[in-house]
Write a structure and sequence with these properties.
mainly beta, 55% strand, 7 strands
Length: 103
Amino acid sequence: MMDKVIYKYDMNPGEDGVTLLKMPGAAILLDVQPQPGQGLQLWALVDKLQPPETRKFKFYNTGEKLPPYPGEHVKTIQAFELAMSGPSPIVMHIFEVPNHGTN
């Protein structure tokens, strides 16, 4: 039996550019967008009956050096409302990184 629902997760990266999210296993990522007053958010289709797993996301800036395998590309965000230094947008490239069994 499945119990599907769309959940929203806080996606704001830490100082190291990494976000760890605990969500039901096999969740399907739907979108990532800035939401006014809440920062960057991720929406995922989840089956609430699945056991939780931790998923790791890494943010890279345009021009930043990436490792040989940065993970699977999730989304590129241009976010004017997240920019702290004026009208130029922040452009972030989000990748999901394999967690190697970390739950």
